[in-house]
Amino acid sequence: MSPAVGILRVGVYSAKLKLANECSYKIWPVLASGGGKTPLLAPALALQPGKSTTVSLPASSSGRLWGRTFCTFNSSIGRLSCLTGDCGSGLPECSWAGALPPVTIVQFELNGDDGLDWYVVRASRGYNLGIFVVPQGSSGGACMAAGCVSDVDGGCESETGGACNSTCFAFSDSKHCCTVSYGRPDTCKPSPYSLYSNSRCPWAYGYAYGDGKNGTRDFPCASGDYAVTFCPHPVR
């Protein structure tokens, strides 16, 4: 699965995704299917601290998962606004809208290339929550855990706006966004923030062409279920 993948394939099996909130505050997860299709989670689902929920994913589904924080839901007009992870549409389910940076995102594809599941965690659009993905009951492929277990917020530099914005979002130029003449692995180089993010999150992408432990941060796995933890405890 490449960094620019956008995907919806037809397959024969599904997977269960367990979402657990280990943050000290409530979060509102978003599970958006590829191509702007029907959202895969209840629109205004909120996970209290220490709680979890399990979602059954359709066969060969693909999409993105992230967490929204410090949200306010106006039930009279059905509008949701969040401090981080907001999609800017005001719609609880985000609909066609993506997440506004800074945000940590899980990207996944079930039954993709070579008949394997593929998943990756990205901090290249900034960081708002630690997220860790662990395969459950799978065999074949790398089947490795992926994500970010460290608290990156404490090391963000003032140049990126005081929050964990990516340098692309902070500076909005082709050099930092890896576009135009910088849109190739040989010209897209990590910034100091990207290097810091990579060092704190070795199982996630800190910038567009970053790689990680074992030379990759895109992980393949045979069909199975997955546990996703928000604000995971550091791996020791």
Question: What's a quick, concise take on this entry?
Answer:
The protein is mainly β and 236 residues long. The chain has helices at residues 167-171, 174-177, 192-200, and strands at residues 15-21, 27-33, 52-57, 62-74, 79-84, 105-109, 117-122, 131-136, 146-148, 219-221, 225-230.
Please, could you describe this protein's structure?
The protein is mainly beta and 236 residues long. The protein has a single domain, classed as Thaumatin, CATH 2.60.110.10. It has 3 helices and 11 strands. Strands 2, 4, 5, 6, 7 and 10 form a 6-stranded antiparallel beta sheet that branches. A hairpin with a 4-residue loop joins β4 (62-74) and β5 (79-84). The radius of gyration is 17 Å and the shape is globular. Pfam families: Thaumatin. Disulfide bonds join 23-231, 71-82, 87-94, 143-221, 148-201, 156-164, 168-177, 178-188. This is Thaumatin-like protein.
